[in-house]
Amino acid sequence: MLFRPSWEGGQYEGDETKRQDALRLAMQLGANYIDIELEVAHDFNSSISGSKPDNFKVIVSSHNFHNTPSAEAIANLVARIQASGADIVSIATTALDITDCARIFQIMVHSQVPIIGIVMGERGLISRLLSPKFGGYLTYGALEQGAISAPGQPTAKDLLDLYNFRLIRPDTKVYGIIGKPVGHSKSPLLFNASFKSVGLNAVYMHFLVDDVEKFFNTYSSIDFASGCSCTIPHKEVALKCMNEIDPIAKKIGAINNIVRRPDGTLMAYNTDYIGAISAIEDGLRELNGAVPAGTSPLSGKLFVVLGAGGAGKSLAYGGAQKGARVVVANRTFERAKELADKVGGQAMTLAEVEHFHPEEGMVLANTTSVGMKPNFDATPLAKHALKHYCLVFDAIYTPKDTRLLREARESGAVIVYGTEMLIRQGFEQYKNFTGLPAPEELFRQLMEKHA
């Protein structure tokens, strides 16, 4: 980018003749590639005609920092670049939506010449990762964090170690996590390492999605979006895009796991409630010892759930199913009441929870985003109120040790990390995606190392 001219998004503002002289010198000194901009490519290629070494290639590139044009416009651009004398065509557009990448994939897979297709920005990340799947000549990775040369560029280390870039082929199945924001998710780390450990030809990536329906309508092939995890804010809105919903997920009204079946239809599940409830139950067993067979340690407990979104619904439904007396607290009372009525529980506002302690030894589950990175100092419940709880669970896992959990531990409660819910719901998702049991020990090792 230092030698890319400012009129093409680079940092070079010097004399154009000197710049091209330097590029010609690089060729004479044995460089394998020169990247020249379409606007000056014809003249540059004419100037080296007859003096090109055999192993030397000219990449002719065009950058669009505003949007991604129609497939027809991109095809016309490819033809113009070819006509300029390019050995390799390079196109970089900008993603306003993740579905913009589909137009670049379409051009790449049908290209008769070597082609580099990049869609810049965080919504375009998949274009960089899936270059080998769609026949791209190469992709770009930054040498280190903070040294990126274009918006949305991953590091070379992430390409190789996190996304297993060298293992991606045209027939590789694509999985991912749908969310907004989504870059913080540890799921690609877990799933890509797990796929690699058993030799599955699959990759799992971050999907920054604005419109779920548009996403699934655009990416509808069997091997693309073969399965998706679904996180905030799409757990409820994604329901309407599904062909079939697991009965438990339908009752909760939120999904977090989507599988594309061989006939292309979408089946949805909710694995959040299994992950969270089983973790809470194990925490209570640790506290109270064994319970009669067939009985949940949550049975009869006063179970306070903070938040009435997708995760809140999962916890409230799961708690009620296990025989707990559920209390739902939410910022807006109406939403709390709607969920509480559904599970036969009680409703209140978040503000009321601080002074709510009809009994000792209650169980608390936070499903709000209060305390999530970067707001490390925030907590959804004042410390003095935590002494009435025997166990506190926080669905947040970035950071792992939230202020709520630290203060709960100091107040004498057993704590259950959000990472435990993530790990356990991940076991279920892996099983739904692959039909195989999850490599549980590997999941735990990775979370321990990276959470």
UniProtKB/TrEMBL annotation:
Give the Quinate/shikimate 5-dehydrogenase/glutamyl-tRNA reductase domain ranges.
298-369
Q: Which residues form the Shikimate dehydrogenase substrate binding N-terminal domain?
A: 177-258
Pfam families (UniProt xref): DHquinase_I, SDH_C, Shikimate_DH, Shikimate_dh_N
InterPro entries (alphabetical)? Aldolase_TIM, Aminoacid_DH-like_N_sf, DHquinase_I, NAD(P)-bd_dom_sf, SDH_C, Shikimate_DH-bd_N, Shikimate_DH_fam, Shikm_DH/Glu-tRNA_Rdtase
Gene3D superfamilies for the chain? Aldolase class I, Leucine Dehydrogenase, chain A, domain 1, NAD(P)-binding Rossmann-like Domain
Q: Which residues form the SDH C-terminal domain?
A: 418-447
What is the name listed in the Swiss-Prot or TrEMBL entry for this protein? Shikimate dehydrogenase
Species annotation: Hevea brasiliensis (Para rubber tree)
